[in-house]
Amino acid sequence: MKYFTRMKIRRVYEWSGRARSFNRRLKTHDYDSFAISVEGLSKIIINTGQHILIEGYDEDNPYVAKVTRLYGDENGQQMKAVVQWFMRVSELPVNKLKLLGREPHPQEIFYYECRNCDNEVNVESILRPVKVKHLDSNDPFPDSSDKDTLYVKLSWDSKVFGVVNSTVMESPAEPAPASSPPSCLKPSLPISPSCSQSAATPRGPSRRVLPTPDHAIMQKASLGEVDHHFLTVSLLFLQISPGTPKTPRHATPSIPIRSLQTQQPANILEEARARLHVSSVPESLPCREQEFQDIYSFVESKIIDNTGGCMYISGVPGTGKTATVHEVIRCLQHAADMDEIPSFHFIEINGMKMTDPHQAYVQILQKLTGQKATPDHAAVLLEKRFSNLAPRKETIVMLVDELDLLWTRKQNVMYNLFDWPTRRHARLVVLTIANTMDLPERIMINRVASRLGLTRMSFQPYSFKQLQEIIMSRLNKLKAFEEDALQLVSRKVAALSGDARRCLDICRRATEICEHSAADPSSTGLVGMSHVMEALNEMFSSAYITAIRCASTQEQLFLRAAIAEFRRLGLEEATFQQVFVQHQALCRIEGLRPIGVSEGLAVCQRLGACRLLLLEPSHLGVLQHIRLNVSQDDIFYALKAD
């Protein structure tokens, strides 16, 4: 069914009947109804207490609400409506739908209980009335042939679903201010007994005792809305965890039990190797306490104030940027679960995982709404979503990792990511992570970059003492390394790049070498200097490093020129023409004769044949794109050794 918006049909709005009361302080009148006139059609009268459709970013799925109050001035210049919002399935966070315990009905909507959303709209945004029918939780949904009726069974409060009391749907609306919305809802599972009456008790003049969580579970089970396995897991959760938070993170069916138990570390070295793995989640993030606090305070303030903002986080690889942001989000989600801050919706995209920068629009829309669309259509829908006044359910916190890779010729993807949080009604907080400090200025005019008002955070490379502290924190008092060995690997990596991931990899390799040399009578069983030196030589003595050391002077200069150009662009690739300009400049600095274009292309082709560079087809000539096939650390190490 297609709903037409004001962009296609001209509507005229006016009050119907006389004003019911007058507010002297605000100089506004309260009304019982208003009329919508459309040329060639009969006049539509909408009264308080009616359900309506409100214009939104998606023309096919307008917002659904119930009018609770109408007010404005006598001449119709200001016409406002206070509404009670309902949520469509497409508006719910995709990761929360599993809490429903069943497939939602296509015409199902949910009574939305929210303390922070905007429930005042312009009357001119109202499209037409709509029929909304309340169903008891044990009633089946009617035949879907009636496409004009929407059905309500449950409520949604940004955390759990609840059963809607019929009095909410059937009683006439009260023309009260939006600050005191009706809240006659039963709680849904699971809520702990210790907090059910304090955190989920309905607000307002009429308060009543809520049913206990086990009663709510059994009630849902009797209605056929919870499968047997879910019921068993939920009741077990209630029996063994009387004091757990009311929004458990694992109230879903358990994964299949392993037929064999995971193998436990056989010795200290195996245990150390497991703890030093890059994917292992540490108990804390040492050496980034200040950065953690700054990011946490920034996001927390935006969530509490219901505003938007953007933070640009930069730093070389392996300096803890992504890990710190993930820890911030984990702590904020815990605070939201404990009702210390309003709930928020977190989504994450990564430029490394996209074949085209415009796929960012597709991923963002799908993670927000579950809706699939082409990049162009997704961009239009997101632009409407973040620009228009709407019942913002909760603040959206979006992490954009590897921002450098979302570069496009017109820079529209990056610009939108920076611009959307500045919109008045967006309630969007964007955290961008990149390797280049001044990427916004490089891709956009300085005037535009300054207008966006980015908050910046720079992660400096780790010093050798910080790297040593990170390793010791990971080991957590496990005595597997000699102190001198830890100092050596920390100093070596800090001198090159300060990359913590490279440091962890070298330490893990050193434990393997130590384990294989355990038969040596002189061995102490700990990772020593000799093991670390062997690991360092292996790590920095690959065939690629040998090839770099054996390359000609011009080839080594070309590799240096490629790194310099990548850093200038803030990207991981460039054209031969761009790198060649850097190469000529380096030749002059080194006192060498600059080579010609044809000789430069030959140098580039030789590096491509050695697989030190990845090249586009050679027929493109100076316009072919170039990427490194080795890490910059390896190039620095090989050239420093020379």
Automatic annotation (TrEMBL):
Alphabetical list of CDD domains matching this protein: AAA, Cdc6_C
GO MF, one annotated term: ATP hydrolysis activity
Gene3D superfamilies (alphabetical): 1.10.8.60, 2.30.30.490, P-loop containing nucleotide triphosphate hydrolases (3.40.50.300)
Composition bias, Low complexity: 181-196
GO cellular component annotations of the record: nuclear origin of replication recognition complex
Residue ranges of every copy of the BAH domain listed in the record: 44-167
Primary localization class, coarse: nucleus
GO BP: any one term: DNA replication initiation
Origin: domain of life: Eukaryota
Stretch list, region Disordered: 171-211
One Pfam family hit: AAA_lid_10
Subcellular location: Nucleus
Keyword field: ATP-binding, DNA replication, DNA-binding, Magnesium, Metal-binding, Nucleotide-binding, Nucleus, Phosphoprotein
Family from the record: Belongs to the ORC1 family.
Described function: Component of the origin recognition complex (ORC) that binds origins of replication. DNA-binding is ATP-dependent, however specific DNA sequences that define origins of replication have not been identified so far. ORC is required to assemble the pre-replication complex necessary to initiate DNA replication.
Protein's UniProt name: Origin recognition complex subunit 1
UniProt gene name: ORC1
